Each structure stands twice: as structure tokens, then as C-alpha cells.
Amino acid sequence: MKRVDDFRLRFGKQELVPIVVGGMGVDISTAELALETARLGGIGHISDAMVQDVSDRRFDTSFVKEKTKLYKYNIDNSDKSGVKFDLGQLAEATRLHVGKTMEAKRGDGMIFVNCMEKLTMNGPAETLRVRLASSLDAGIDGITLSAGLHLGSFGLMADHPRFRDAKLGIIVSSLRALQLFLRKNARLDRLPDFIVIEGPLAGGHLGFGMDWAQYDLQTIVTEIAAWLKAEQLPIPLIAAGGIFTGSDAVSFLENGAAAVQVATRFTVTHECGLPADTKQEYFKAKEDEIEVNTVSPTGYPMRMLKSSPAIGSGIRPGCESYGYLLDGKGNCAYITSYNREVAAHPDDKNIVVMDKTCLCTHMRNFKCWTCGHYTYRLKDTTRQAADGSYEILSAEHVFRDYQFSVDNKIALPV
């Protein structure tokens, strides 16, 4: 019976273990997790979500403090159109986060940055351009374009000297999305180096509507693989979403995928950025405690634990400090919902907002517990102590289990 280790992901002459650890923000996919994945021969992601806050935590910078001080006067104002990011500071934070990670890299694997288009930051094009260029400047091996179709993102990098050197890929959930991307970027004569196909069982934001359960990852992979073959486009496909065991991975590697992207099982590793008590919540989760809802201001459905403190929270929008989801006019769906509830309950000290959440603040504080469909199976991957807590795993243990396991077995820690 085949194992994941019997396959290799190839970029030209370079061969990698076909395991990609997804880019979970905000700093859930830490530099430590990405570095360990690269050391083991796979591809690790860091995320550029809220990179200035991540820089403050990692390097004791003060980007968020300075931005908050600058816009303190506007905190009680519902109009956030004047709250802007300093592009120089954004570039500096990105270069710090990416550059220091690349300096520490060891092993034969690669490190990519997950770049989210939906972080519009009240300046969608210019802030995205800075994040992309700064990542390339800092020596990142590759960039995975996520959270949107990114129809113009290749164009934002086209004049960078590493545009044809770094590995550039996109995340799609349908053949139609891929075709649209390729058509819009045909003039650049630059195909993506890889395509991540994210299915309906993935964690966090989904590329489907609330009818997500009607779709199947293998069906989408098969359809896209057949189309690429017919068009003579040899682009590696990376299957993602709901791949819980090494045997799950092998089934995709035998049927059109060049690699798999996994994340859920790495959320409960030492190297993951989630707080220890939150990791225990993931271990304890039951199947009926996982839901797909529409509380994200991005407009995408999002899978999370029902017990997430972010759900129903009515905190004041933190745009002066963060503001990552402000569109080009300073709007955000959470601000609209928050102002509606304040107007309806002017005398209430504690506002409750059920339909949307302040994603920036809650993701920053690890209060929005996004998760994969099979999070309820995490308890079966480790051992439970007498006090009811579960043993945290190492990233190497989980990676090796994916790489070498057979017969749908999961190795427990020794």
C-alpha cells in the first residue's frame, strides 16, 4: 500500500514531500510551524494577515500603537474613511516577518506566504501591492494568493525582478474560477506555478455559498485536472480541505493531485500560534459543535466552533488600531451591524451583534475559532491525561504521520 512518501511534488528539478501546511492567520501558522515543515522537506506557510500586529509580537515593534495614537481622535466616529495604513510601515512589517523567517530556514523544503485579497485595508490595490512586493523583497520562496479571485494580483507584481523567479499560486474552489483567473492574466504570459483546490470541508472562509455541502473536493480536482490536460497546461494541483490522514492524502495523489494541503491537525501542535487553552477547545469539540455561518464581514461563509467568543460579541469596531477589512471607502459589514444595534439599544452598555463579527479584533485575540470540518476527530490523534486535558503534539509528529501512515491509521504520541 502506498504512502505519501512514495510521491513527490516537483517544481522543475526540485522535489519536495507533497505536504503543504496551510497559511492560517492571524499568526496561527507561525514562523516556527512553517520552518519545521520546510525542515522536513514540505512547504510551510506563514500568513500576512495583520502583519503589523504580528511584527509587534515577534519583534517588539510598535506599528499598531502608532496607528492607534494617530487615529485616536476617530475612535467614536462611525465614519472610518480617513483611517489609512502607512505604506512604509506596512512594507517594513512585511519584510521583518518574512525576512526573519527566511533567514532561519533550514532543510530542503520551501516557505510560502499566504496573501489574502480580502484584507482590503481601506486601500485595496496599494496595500496589496506593498504586501506582495515586500514579501518578494524579503526572499520568500513563493506566494499563495487566497481569499478572493486575485484577478489583478499578478499584474501588481509584474514589474518586480522576482516575478518569474518566485513560485506564485492561487487558491480556487471551481474550474470556472481558475478559467477566469487565467483569462484575465493571459497578457502577462505568466502561468501560476501551482493551484490549490480548496474543497468544502476546509477550515475558515470557504469559496462556496451556504450550499457548500453539495460539492465534493475529488470531483473538483478531477474536473480541473482533465481541463488542464486538455489545454496542455502542466500546472501542479494541490488538494485541500478535509484531508485528515495519510491515506486520505494518497487517494488524492493517485487521482490528479501533485500534493495535499493540510491544516486542521497542525492547529493542536506546539508550533501552532493558538493559545494552549484554545487548542484544548479544539480537542474537545464534537461534530455538532462545528458550523458554517455567515458572521464574517468578508461575505464568505466561514466554518468555526459554535462556542467561539466572537459570535454574538458587540465590541466597538477596532479600525483605528487594525482596520484590515475596511473597503476602499472605509466601510465594513461589522460596522454597519454594530451601528444598527447601538441605534436600536442606545441605553444598553453591552451591545450584542449576532449577524456579523469584528473579525480583525477577534482573530487578533484568538477569539474567532475557525476550524476544519474534521476538527471533532482531533481527540483521536492524541492521548488524554487524567485531568481531562489532551496532549499537545509536535509538528514533526503530525507531518511524519501524514508522510508514512497507511490503512487510514493515525499514530498516537509515544
What would a concise description of this structure say?
By secondary structure, the protein is of the alpha/beta class.
How is this structure best described in words?
The longest helix has 17 residues, at 87-103. The chain is built from 13 helices and 13 strands. It is α/β, with parallel strands linked by helices. The strands form 3 sheets. Strands 3-4-5-6-7-8-10-11 form an 8-stranded parallel barrel, surrounded by 6 helices. A 3-stranded antiparallel sheet has the order 9-13-12, with no helix packed on it. Helix 2 packs across helix 4 (87-103). The chain has a single domain, classed as Alpha-Beta Barrel (TIM Barrel), CATH 3.20.20. It starts with 8 loop residues before the first strand and ends in a 10-residue tail after the last helix. The protein has helices at residues 31-39, 51-59, 63-70, 87-103, 124-137, 153-157, 175-184, 217-230, 246-253, 276-284, 333-344, 359-364, 395-404; strands spanning 9-11, 14-16, 19-21, 43-47, 110-116, 142-146, 167-172, 194-198, 204-205, 237-240, 259-262, 290-293, 302-305. It is globular, with a radius of gyration of 21 Å.
